[in-house]
Specification:
Layout: H1 26-32, E1 37-39, H2 42-52, E2 80-82, E3 89-92, E4 95-96, E5 105-107, E6 112-116, E7 120-121, E8 128-130, E9 138-139, E10 152-154, H3 161-165, E11 181-183, E12 205-207, E13 228-230, H4 241-248, E14 255-258, E15 265-266, H5 271-279, E16 283-285, E17 292-295, E18 299-302, H6 306-345, H7 347-362, H8 365-374, E19 378-383, H9 389-402, E20 407-408, H10 410-413, H11 420-429, E21 431-438, H12 440-444, H13 446-461, E22 469-473, H14 487-491, E23 495-497, H15 509-523
Parallel strand pairs: 1-2, 2-5, 3-6, 4-7, 5-8, 6-9, 8-10, 10-11, 11-12, 12-13, 13-14, 14-16, 15-17, 19-20, 19-21, 21-22, 22-23
Antiparallel strand pairs: 17-18
Length: 525
């Protein structure tokens, strides 16, 4: 059936541009038309808009449209709508279309549809939509959801970068499982989230050319039918390893990739990528010989001789790798040596701090501080080797009896069931002084030297440098055998020399004098 209101219009599958009369309304067009296509071209658009954008219009594209409760009814056999190249500035608000329609194709490219808020409903049969070149900067993520049968979507030459860059969960195209062709070129996109196309399992052609992508992180592992990946004229340096693995898992010889016009880099960091480009049997790089990459600081080389590039890189990177390994090894050895020396230098301090911290954890802080500042459980901790025990026991009895001293010796006062190191640290901590009886057996004993060094740390770090460590040389010349780090004790003269071995036992004058001198030292403040 032809339309009387058209000049030279007939019932053909591809409608020709027609001129509308001034009294034509869209309502009348809808009632009378039974054609399969409508074309709105610049030649007839002035007459067309004069009628349909008159007062209380039913066609909600104009910027002055305010009534959003009308439903638009399309001709029941309309399948293709040509609405391109009109340069009409508009924002599409809520746009309900009658359900009884067969519209499958919309050509609306090169207008100024700067915003699509929607929702647009009622065209569930839509398969093809071209909205390119509309300077569009905003599309609601709910717009594509009703179009589950959409197979072709062209959104190129718009300004939709923020929409796609923030689509972290892939909400925009979540219902377009049949989508086969998606064109997002010329949209100023800087980056795309990994899951932005997670639901598009039937995608065959993906065009992201002429954007500003510095990396391509989009997950494509589920796109088993992907044939073309258009990434030309971006800022890509390489394709990451995950993308390469996904491409290699696709059927053999299945995909063409366009990378011309990117900032490809020929360096040690991208060597694996370049080898993959050369050796991959699954991917064909379109016009690969026209690719260029930056080599060194200012040089640019062509991919026409990729083999030579790879040979140079492998030679450079192998020596570079050797240097890295050697430098890394040297750094590790140097750091290990330095740390070991530091640990050895401060080994007694570290041990002391460890055991003191452990003791503080066990005891109440306030009781411990009170004990430090006001009283000690023992007047002295007596450190000696087991080989000298017989003489030391007699000396301790004499000192405790004659001078009323409370002395701590490990054979008698250490707490059973507690570790030796803990007992030693606790005894030193709870004693006003520590007395070490120096013999060759003492110097050869690990635990005796442990007691000596813990007492030194106690004096330095817990007693504010007070002279709380006292040495007794039971053997002549024994002080000369002390380690160098302990010679400060000898220089400070904080020690007593016993005259000879003969006076260790009995009531000799030397033994009595020695006991008296030691007793006076321990009772003094």
């Amino acid at each position: 059936m032809s339309w009387d209101i058209f000049d030279k219009c007939n019932d053909t599958k591809i409608a020709t541009p027609c001129t509308f009369t001034k009294d034509t309304s869209l309502d009348k067009l809808v009632r009378e038309n039974d054609n399969g296509n409508i074309t709105a071209s610049p030649r007839n658009w002035n007459h067309f808009t004069d009628s349909i954008f008159a007062a209380d219009s039913f066609f909600p594209f104009s910027s002055g449209y305010t009534n959003r409760n009308h439903t638009i009814y399309l001709p029941r056999n309309l399948r293709v709508l040509y609405y391109h190249d009109n340069l009409y500035k508009m924002s599409i608000p809520k746009f309900p279309i009658g359900l009884n329609n067969k519209l499958t194709h919309i050509f609306a490219q090169r207008n100024i549809i700067y915003e699509i808020i929607g929702p647009v409903t009622g065209i569930s049969q839509l398969q093809y939509a071209d909205l390119s070149g509309n300077y569009c900067k905003n599309i609601s993520k709910y717009i594509p959801q009703p179009f589950s049968k959409l197979e072709f979507l062209n959104l190129s030459n718009n300004a939709l970068a923020p929409i796609f860059e923030n689509d972290i969960e892939g909400e925009m195209f979540r219902n377009q499982r049949l989508l086969s062709v998606l064109d997002l070129s010329f949209n100023r996109i800087v980056h795309l989230p990994e899951r932005v196309l997670q639901n598009n399992i039937n995608l065959r052609h993906l065009d992201l050319s002429f954007n500003s992508l510095s990396e391509f992180m989009v997950n494509i592992s589920h796109m088993k039918k992907l044939k073309t990946l258009e990434l030309s004229n971006n800022q890509l340096v390489e394709l990451d390893s995950e993308t390469r693995k996904s491409l290699d898992r696709l059927p053999l010889n299945s995909i063409n990739i366009h990378l011309i016009g990117n900032n490809l880099k020929c360096s040690c960091e991208t060597l694996d990528f370049l080898k993959w480009m050369q050796n991959s049997k699954n991917v064909h790089f379109v016009k690969m010989k026209d690719y260029t990459c930056s080599f060194g600081r200012n040089a640019t080389v062509s991919f026409k001789d990729l083999n030579t590039i790879l040979q140079k890189l492998e030679k450079t990177c192998s020596s570079y790798t050797l240097i890295i390994v050697l430098m890394t090894t040297l750094i590790i050895v140097t750091m290990t040596t330095t740390i070991s020396r530091i640990l050895y230098r401060f080994r007694w301090k570290l041990r002391y701090m460890y055991y003191v911290a452990k003791e503080k954890y066990k005891e109440d802080v306030y009781r411990l501080e009170f004990r430090r500042q006001n009283s000690f459980r023992f007047d002295a901790f007596i450190s000696y080797a087991d080989e000298d025990r017989r003489y030391i026991i007699e000396l301790v009895k004499s000192l405790e009896k004659d001078y009323c001293l409370s002395l701590c010796i490990h054979n008698r006062d250490f707490i059973p069931g507690t570790g030796i190191a803990d007992n030693i640290t606790n005894a030193i901590h709870c004693s006003r002084r520590t007395v070490c009886f120096m013999t060759k057996h003492f110097l050869d004993s690990y635990w005796c030297m442990f007691e000596l060094n813990m007492a030194r740390m106690e004096a330095i770090y817990s007693r504010n440098g007070q002279n709380v460590l006292f040495l007794v040389a039971l053997e002549s010349g024994i002080m000369k055998r002390l380690p160098l780090q302990l010679m400060d004790l000898v220089n400070s003269k904080s020690y007593l020399d016993f005259p000879s071995d003969e006076g260790r036992t009995g009531d000799t004058e030397s033994a009595i004098a020695f006991t008296a001198k030691l007793g006076e030292t321990l009772t003094s403040d």
